[in-house]
Amino acid sequence: MAGQRALNQVALDFIEAHFLEPDRATCGGGAQAEVGGADQLPLREQDAALNGVIELANIAGPGMFQEKLRRAGVEPQYDAKQLSAGVLARPTVFQNAVLYLFMSESGRDEPIDVRDKLTGAEMKFTLPEQRAVLVLLNKKDRKVIGKYGVADVAARN
Fold first, then answer.
1. Which one, of 98, 91, 99, lies nearest residue 19 by Cα?
2. How far apart are CA 146 and CA 136, in angstroms?
3. Which of 55, 74, 113, 132 would suit a FRET pair with 83, their CA atoms being 20 to 30 Å apart?
4. Are 89 and 108 in contact (CB under 8 A)?
5. What phi-psi label fits residue 60: left (phi over 0), alpha (psi between -120 and 50 degrees) or beta?
6. Claim: this prediction has a pTM higher than 0.70
7. 98 Cβ contact list (under 8 Å, min separation 6)
8. Are 59 and 71 in contact (CB under 8 A)?
9. What CA–CA distance (Å, rounded) separates 155 from 124?
10. % of the chain residues with pLDDT over 70
């Protein structure tokens, strides 16, 4: 269980680092002075504690990941033969490899069958419910050279 929490933290850190921009006005510069009793004052909505937090609940049900990415103008770097709407698939391209993060918000195990557009490699496996999986592809030979969170990944060229 601790290993899964660590993987989920890695996935969250990855998403925050690559897709979310911090609010420079509130995150930028060091400690803020504390004003006595300020927490007791009724403030405007934009001054609430959760101001600036991304709210995924605006999209009803399945498709939230794809919808948010589509609205942000992000084109997928993969073709999905089988990918549930409740699964986030995000590749990161390195010099000699492509790292895929698959993260499930689904309440059931989900079959994954995607083809990486850059390498042409196809990946097929079952993503456990409420889990994340990392798959590392070699750009040259299109083989899986590493995986985390899943026992087997069938890679086809």
1. 91
2. 5
3. 55
4. no
5. beta
6. no
7. 91, 92, 116, 118, 119, 136, 137, 139
8. no
9. 7
10. 56
Q: 105, 86 in Cβ contact below 8 A?
A: yes
- The reported pLDDT for the residue numbered 40 is 54
Structure tokens at 107: 């309440």
Distance between CA atoms of 99 and 92, rounded to whole angstroms? Answer: 5
Rounded to whole angstroms, how far apart are CA atoms 96 and 81? Answer: 25
Q: Which residue has the tokens 């499930």?
A: 104
* Dihedral sign for Cα atoms in the order 13, 15, 17, 22: negative
